[in-house]
Amino acid sequence: MDFKIIVDSCCDLSAELRKRFDISTAPLSIDIDDKHFVDDENLDRESLIAAMRNSSEAPKTASPGPGPFLDLYRKYQNIFVVTLSKELSATYQNAVLAKKLLKEEAGDKFVKVFNSFSATVGETMIAYKLGELIEAGLNRDEIVEKADKYIDEMQTLFVLDSLDNLIKAGRMGKLKGKIASFFNIKPVLGATPEGTITLLDKARGSKRAISKLIDKIGEKGENLEEKVLGIAHCNALEKAEYIKDQAAEKYNFREIIIVETAGISTVYANEGGIVLAF
């Protein structure tokens, strides 16, 4: 049986992963002042970062409507979809609505929409898991069961180097944000089981924050020898490679991969941000 993986554009993918698992993407969009960005393969990420840096307003993001998902669904027979946490975006709801519309057109097609309860490389690792399960020749029900279990157990952790977007979006008070920035305070954050974001720890300086992030892997992770660690970075390859080396030394991951943040993930993480999922 042939399967197709579809993701939204908050799923950070390398060209190799996209090709290996034949993954297609429904893009979100980003507006900053009078600039409009579509988060697809033509996105100029450096222009996006510059626009965020130069604006006093928080970026506004928009999920793909049901239409882009429906257009993709029409092309395939058996489809697995991975979306942003429904607590963070309307993308999941639109992907489900597109599934309902498809049923009216072609009731014989199979579509399973997975709420990632995460974002960025969390979505990547779910797509990666689906790809491996498909490669292993599992049937549809087995893939759904194992993917659901993976999502339930998955951990997402991240460190923000810049608090600008949190302050602009009103998620951190301006005075509190300025004090944190002045004292070089870096938050260590994680995804809750409900798919929202929570503060796990904080540190003064990027190096200490990264050290705490690496320690959190051991605190949060189980059966790491069976798992793949995904690391997404926003213009922070040196940091990502350091984390990869440290994680390989401290933990026995089956594999460790590094990807760059795409547009929506760049908005979340901002320049210098690091996101882990496993």
TrEMBL record:
The keyword Membrane does not apply. The keyword Acetylation does not apply. Keywords: Lipid-binding. InterPro entries: DegV (IPR003797), DegV_C (IPR043168), DegV_domain_contain (IPR050270). One of its GO terms (molecular function) is lipid binding. PANTHER family: DEGV DOMAIN-CONTAINING PROTEIN DR_1986-RELATED (PTHR33434), FATTY ACID-BINDING PROTEIN TM_1468 (PTHR33434:SF2). This is DegV family protein. It comes from Halanaerobium saccharolyticum subsp. saccharolyticum DSM 6643. The lineage of its organism: Bacteria, Bacillati, Bacillota, Clostridia, Halanaerobiales.
